[in-house]
From TrEMBL:
Protein family membership: Belongs to the sterol desaturase family.
Localization of this protein: Membrane
Organism phylogeny: Eukaryota, Viridiplantae, Streptophyta, Embryophyta, Marchantiophyta
TM stretches of this protein: 21-41, 47-68, 127-146, 190-211, 327-346
Protein's recorded name: Fatty acid hydroxylase domain-containing protein
Length: 629
C-alpha cells in the first residue's frame, strides 16, 4: 500500500490545490479592509487590515531569513551542514507558509465569536508580559509532550515524518507540516493568546509581537547557521535552558529521538531527552568552520533585471525552476532595481552557492552586474576590474580552475579571458572560457549527415571554431559577415584543399534553401523569414533569439546535464532545466576534473573539440537532449 493511501486524512491543507494562488483565501480580508478604511465600514479595531499586514510582515521575515541562510559568503564560517538541500526539498516545502493562512482564519473566528477578543486596544503592557510567562510555562510544556507524542510510530509514520524528510534544514523547513499538525500547533499558540485574553491583556500589538517572535525563533532554529554567540552563554549561563540554538535543533533532524523542545531546552533537560552531542556540536560550530578553497569556480553575471530574482538567495522557488518572465515578477521589479544600485556600489563578486561533484568542490561566484551594463563603454573597465579581482582571489585561495560565464569572456571586453592571463603570467589558477565544450555541444547537436549550414556571427570565437570544424568534415558553410578580412583570415586557417567549402554571404536570403541555421548573432524576425519551412535554428547567442517562426524549431543555448551524483544543486541556471548547466560551466568542470594545466582563453583550439567532448561524456555529463530521452 502506498504512503499516500496510508495517510489520506488531514495531510494537505484545504487550499493545497491552489498552490501559488492560495492567498485568494484572504481576499475577503482585503475587501473588508478597503471597505473599513475608505468607505466608513464598521470595523472598530480594523481587524482585517491588521491580519493582512501581520501576514505580509511574517512573509517578509521568512524571506529575510531565507536570504540570510543562503548567502554562503556570510554564513559559511558557522554553517552547520553543507551540501544537503535538493530540488526535491524545495518542492516539498512549497507550502511552508500554510500556517500563516490557517492562523489568520482561526484568529478571526475567535475574534468574531469571543467578546473579549474584539475592540482590542493597540497596546497593553500587561498583556505582553503575561503572554511571555504563559508561553514559557503551559505552551512550551504542552508542545514538548505533543512533539514527543507525534514521534510515536503511528503519528510519525503517517504525519510527522513529512517534516523530518528535510534532514538538512532551511528556514522554510520550520513551516513544513501536515494540516493536522498545523491545527495542533495553532492550538499550542492559542494557549498563550487565549490565556492572555482571559486575563484581560489582549491587544493588537500582542498578536504582532507574539506571531513575529514565534516565527523569528522557528526560522532561526532551522537556518542551518549557528548565530548565537558563545559569549552569550558564558555571560548568562541560564540561557542554556531557556534559548534554543540552530545547532541544538539540527540534531533533532539528524537524531529525531532527541531535542524535542520548542524554544526552551529546559524541558529536554528535565525529561532526559537532550542529545549528548549538543554541547560538543555547538562548541565546534561557534569556533568557526575552516573554509577550504573550492577546486572550481564558475563566474557568471545577472542577465537582466527580472532574471536576477532567480539568484538562489532571492526567491527560493523561483530559483528552483528555469527562468521565465512570469507576470507576478513585474510586481517585484523594485527588488532587482535596488539590487542593481547596491551591487554597483558594492563592487565585489559574491558567492551564490556551493556544490560537490566527485572529489571536487565547486562554487558559483557572481559578478554584480547586469547584461546591459556590458555594452556601456564606461562600464567595461570596472567590469574587467571585478573579473580580475575574482581571478586573483581564486588564485590566492588555491582555486584550481575559474570558468568565465556569459559576457564575462566577451571578446571585446577581455579577449575571451586572454587579457588576464597576459597581465598575470604567473597565475596558478587556470582561467577557462569553456567555449570548447560549447562548440562541441553545438556541433554534436547538428543532424547526422548534414551537408550545408548557414551561419551568422560566423567570425566570432565560436563561429570560427564551428566553421573550421565543419569544413574538415566536408560540410559547406555559408558564413554571413560584412567583414571580408575576417572571413579570409578564417579561410586561411583551413587546409588548402578544404577552403572551397567556405562561402561568404552578405544577406539572409542566401540561406533560403538551407534548413540548418546556426545563429551566433541576434537575428530579427524579418531576417528569420528567409529560412525555409522546417528549419532548425541552432544558436549560441546571448540572449537567445526569439522564436518568430511557428513552422520552424529553435534550439536552446548549449548546455549539458550534470552527472547524477552531483550534490548541493538547488538553483536553476537561468533558463536551463534542473541539474543542467550551460556548456561553458560544464567545460570548466571538465577542465578541473581532467586536471589540465593549460589556460583555455582566446581563440578555440579546433583540435581539442572532440577531446573535450569525450572527456565530458567520460565524467558523466550528457547533452541535454540525451539526458531527457
Amino acid at each position: 500500500m502506498s504512503m499516500a493511501a496510508k495517510r489520506p486524512y488531514l495531510t494537505a491543507s484545504p487550499w493545497h490545490t491552489l498552490r501559488g494562488y492560495k492567498y485568494v483565501v484572504l481576499v475577503p480580508f482585503l475587501i473588508k479592509a478597503i471597505h473599513a478604511n475608505y468607505f466608513a465600514g464598521n470595523d472598530v479595531d480594523n481587524w482585517c487590515w491588521h491580519m493582512l499586514l501581520v501576514t505580509f510582515l511574517r512573509l517578509l521575515l521568512a524571506q529575510l531569513w531565507m536570504t540570510f541562510s543562503r548567502m554562503h559568503g556570510i554564513v559559511k564560517k558557522y554553517q552547520i551542514h553543507e551540501g544537503g538541500v535538493t530540488f526535491e526539498q524545495v518542492d516539498r516545502e512549497f507550502h511552508s507558509d500554510d500556517h500563516m493562512i490557517l492562523e489568520v482564519l482561526l484568529a478571526t473566528a475567535v475574534h468574531v465569536w469571543m467578546p473579549g477578543f474584539r475592540f482590542l486596544p493597540l497596546w497593553n503592557t500587561k498583556g505582553l508580559v503575561t503572554i511571555f510567562f504563559i508561553h514559557a510555562g503551559p505552551t512550551e510544556f504542552v508542545y514538548y509532550w505533543l512533539h514527543r507524542f507525534l514521534h510515536t510510530d503511528f503519528l510519525f509514520n503517517n504525519y510527522h515524518h513529512f517534516h523530518h524528510l528535510s534532514v538538512y534544514t532551511e528556514p522554510a523547513t520550520a513551516g513544513v507540516s501536515t494540516f493536522l499538525e498545523l491545527v495542533l500547533y495553532a492550538g499550542i499558540k492559542g494557549i498563550a493568546l487565549l490565556g492572555t485574553i482571559f486575563t484581560g491583556g489582549a491587544s493588537i500589538s500582542m498578536i504582532y509581537i507574539y506571531w513575529m517572535t514565534f516565527d523569528f525563533l522557528k526560522n532561526m532554529a532551522h537556518c542551518n547557521c549557528e548565530i548565537v554567540p558563545a559569549w552569550a552563554f558564558r555571560t548568562l549561563p541560564f540561557l542554556k535552558y531557556t534559548m534554543i540554538t540552530p545547532s541544538y535543533h539540527s540534531l533533532h533532524h539528524t537524531e529525531p529521538a532527541t531535542n524535542f523542545c520548542l524554544f526552551m531546552p529546559l524541558y529536554d533537560h528535565l525529561n532526559g531527552t537532550v542529545n549528548k552531542n549538543s554541547d560538543e556540536l555547538y562548541d565546534r560550530i561557534t569556533a568557526g568552520r575552516q573554509e577550504t578553497a573550492p577546486d572550481f569556480v564558475f563566474l557568471p553575471h545577472c542577465v537582466d533585471m527580472l532574471s536576477a530574482l532567480q539568484v538562489t538567495f532571492v526567491l527560493r522557488h523561483t530559483a528552483a525552476h528555469p527562468y521565465s518572465s512570469q507576470w507576478y515578477l513585474w510586481f517585484l521589479l523594485p527588488i532587482p532595481i535596488l539590487s542593481c544600485i547596491c551591487m554597483t556600489i558594492w563592487g565585489k563578486v559574491f558567492v551564490a552557492y556551493k556544490y560537490y561533484l566527485n572529489d571536487i568542490v565547486g562554487q558559483t561566484w557572481v559578478v554584480p552586474r547586469f547584461g546591459f551594463q556590458y555594452f556601456i563603454p564606461q562600464e567595461m573597465k570596472n567590469i574587467n576590474s571585478l573579473i580580475e579581482s575574482a581571478i586573483l582571489e581564486a588564485d590566492r585561495t588555491g582555486v584550481k580552475v575559474i570558468s568565465l560565464g556569459a559576457l564575462n569572456k566577451n571578446e571585446a571586453l577581455n579577449g575571451g579571458g586572454a587579457l588576464f592571463v597576459q597581465k598575470h603570467p604567473d597565475l596558478r589558477v587556470r582561467v577557462v572560457h569553456g567555449n570548447t565544450l560549447t562548440a562541441a555541444c553545438i556541433l554534436k547537436g547538428l543532424p547526422e549527415g548534414v551537408t550545408e549550414v548557414f551561419m551568422n556571427g560566423a567570425t566570432s570565437k565560436l563561429g570560427r571554431a564551428i566553421a573550421l570544424y565543419l569544413v574538415r568534415r566536408r560540410v559547406n558553410v555559408m558564413m554571413l559577415t560584412s567583414s571580408k578580412e575576417r572571413f579570409d583570415a578564417i579561410v586561411r586557417e583551413a587546409p588548402t584543399h578544404l577552403r572551397h567549402y567556405f562561402t561568404l554571404v552578405t544577406d539572409y536570403r542566401s540561406g533560403k534553401n538551407c534548413k540548418t541555421w546556426i545563429m551566433g548573432k541576434w537575428t530579427r524576425s524579418r531576417d528569420q523569414r528567409w529560412a525555409p519551412k522546417g528549419t532548425h535554428f541552432h544558436q549560441f547567442v546571448v540572449p537567445p533569439v526569439a522564436s518568430a517562426r511557428k513552422d520552424c524549431t529553435y534550439g536552446k543555448l548549449a548546455a549539458m546535464r550534470m552527472p547524477p551524483h552531483v550534490k548541493g544543486l538547488y538553483s536553476c541556471e537561468v533558463t536551463c532545466e534542473r541539474n543542467v548547466v550551460h556548456a561553458c560551466h560544464a567545460g570548466g568542470l571538465v577542465h578541473c576534473l581532467e586536471g589540465w594545466a593549460h589556460h583555455e582563453v582566446g581563440g578555440i583550439d579546433v583540435d581539442r573539440i572532440d577531446l573535450v567532448w569525450e572527456a565530458a561524456l567520460k565524467h558523466g555529463f550528457l547533452p541535454v537532449s540525451a539526458g531527457e530521452a
